[in-house]
Amino acid sequence: MIHIAICDDDPRSAGLVESLILDNRERFSEKIDMSVYFSAERFVEALGQGSIFDIIFMDIEMGGMDGIMAGHVLRADDANDPAQLFYISSYEQYHLQLFDVRPSGFIKKPVGQKSLLDKLIPAVQKAIRIRQQGKQHFLPVQLKGKERLVPLRDIHYLESRIRRISLMTRDGEIQYYGTLGEEARKLPSGYFIRIHQSYIVNFYSVKEISARRIVLITGDELPVSEKNSIPVRKAYMKFRGNLA
């Protein structure tokens, strides 16, 4: 699924862009999910709550925070580097100010179908390529009907709690429905390993390891089951050897 954000404080302008995308969504091989924000503040708030977008259509001049400042907030988080940001405006004098937020393009108002599709079609194709290439570096997680990609490097461990997964990351805990078996199939076996019926650990987060216990760099202590004790230690030694 391709996630698109539209940010414009003019409901008519935002609605026009939304309608043009909806009218052409059958052109694409993946489903399109859209979120519309009528202020830059609401868009930034969504980013702070973990929303990740593949494509963003952003007005520049808005009451309160403008689109350029919202673009700086977007680019301040490395997780948003793949996002394609298109600015929409009646004015073209902003080009130099947009340099630092690395926009993918500019659409002049009023937005027409051709000018939008000239940007949208290649942007969706690029987003699909990025997603296919990048999924090997992320764990896809379903949260409230939306897919969130969690960088593997940020994961410390996963814990299973009766059909719910607690994903412990650098930024805190993420909870969602699933099983460890399902998640294990999505994770690289070279440095993620199941140490217990209820735990999968990222070896990069391990500080100490013994026959029946693992201590993480976070200070968390996790049990190693008896049947997994030897395989876990062998896997960890192989992991350490590959780092040398």
UniProtKB/TrEMBL annotation:
Keyword Transmembrane helix assigned: no
Domain Response regulatory: 3-124
GO molecular function terms listed in the Swiss-Prot or TrEMBL record: DNA binding; phosphorelay response regulator activity
Keywords (A to Z) from UniProt: Activator, Cytoplasm, Phosphoprotein, Two-component regulatory system
Residues modified to 4-aspartylphosphate: 59
Function: Required for high-level post-exponential phase expression of a series of secreted proteins.
Protein name: Stage 0 sporulation protein A homolog
Organism of provenance: Paenibacillus riograndensis SBR5
